[in-house]
Every structure is written in structure tokens, then in C-alpha cells.
Amino acid sequence: MFLFKSVICFAKFRMDLLNRKVMNMNKYFAEFIGTFWLVFGGCGSAVLAAAFPELGIGFVGVALAFGLTVLTGAYALGHISGGHFNPAVSVGLWVGGRFNAKDLAPYIIAQVLGGIFAAFILYLIVQGQAGFTGTGGFATNGFGDLSPGKYSLLSALLIEIVLTAIFLIVILGATDKRAPAGFAPIAIGLALTLIHLISIPVTNTSVNPARSTAVALFAETAALSQLWLFWVAPIIGAVIGALIYKCFEQKNSQ
Fold first, then answer.
1. pLDDT tens for residues 128-140?
2. Domains of the chain, first to last
């Protein structure tokens, strides 16, 4: 009898362990798909539609496209993985006490791979245009000569830090248990749209290291040499934003 109970307990333990592994893989795959959608939709709109003759969507259209990818992705996948789709967001949520450290590295890996896969698909698509002459800038981020408005390194650093910090404050506030339920993806998507409206002329807007890395790999510019900034600045900004929001939480708990 004791042996039988031991076997049953062991079988339940194995099943629980297997279920946890499946749930973890689901979370990582959701982050892969969500980041794929963000890069494919946002960068795809910049590469394919922004400057289309006479009917191009321009800066406003690209900004809206990035916001819509996050809004729709968060509604579709947020209940599975939390809908980060951004290494800086994952780091910020961890600093803010909303995310487990053990998932940080797998999330970032899934996000970067999802973004790269989206950029690769875009790369295959653009080659199908008649008269294709190369990928050019390929919606990459940059400063100096690689900035759309030729802004300096300092300008790029400051705007990426500030906007990512605000983005994290919006995310943490919109997903706070005290906030109205069900509206977080709308607030977050609109915040990302506004962020792009502000900063496309300065850096082509990153606030997302996975997005920057993905397209830099396929560009014909020196974007890879400037990629460090679009990892450092968003992560610094995310940490600052998370720490600011933690101050609000502490004051409200007193």
C-alpha cells in the first residue's frame, strides 16, 4: 500500500513538472510570436509602406503601426506571457517586482529570436520588388549620420532613456491591480504610438533592444556599430521608470 501511494505521488509530481515545463514553453513562444508581430508590423510598415509613392503612410502611420502591434499582441498573448515583447520591458518589470528573475534570460532570448525571424521574413519580401537594389537602412535605429534628423549621440541617448522610462511607468500603472481592468493594452499601445511620434526624427525610435537588433542584422548601413546604444539606453530607462513607479507604490501603501 505504501509503495502504491509512493508511485501515485511520484506520478503526480512528474505530471506537475511536465505541466510547468509546457506552461513555460508557452510563455516563451508567446514572447517570440509577440515580438515577431511587433517587428514585422512596425518595421514592416516603415520599410514597405512609409514612403510608398503618393499613398505612403509617413511617420504618423509608422507610429500607429507600432502602437497597434503592441495593443493587438497584448490582447492576444498577454494572458499567456504578460505581453512584454521587449527586453527592456522585461528588465523593468523585474526591477519593479512584477516579473520573476528566472524567466528573464529565456524571455529576452525569445524576444530577440522573434524579432530576427520577423526581420528575415521582411528581408525576403523586399527582395521581391522590381528593381530591388538593396535593403538600405531597413528601419534601423541610429544617431549622427544614421539618425533621420542627424541628431547627436547625446540626443539619442537622452530621448531613448526618457521615453523608455515613461513607457515603463505607463505599463506598470496600466497593469496595476488598482487600475481599471481590461484597458492596459490600449494605454500601452497608445503610449508606444506617442513615443514614436516624438522620437522617429531623432533615432527612428527604438525603446526596444530586440527591435533594434533584428533589423540591424539585415541593414546595409553601420547600424550594428551603433546597436550598443539601443540596448544600453532602453534598459537604463526601463530601470529608472520601474524605480519611479515603485516610489508611487510605497507612498500609496503607507
1. 999 888 899 999 9
2. 2-248 (1.20.1080.10)
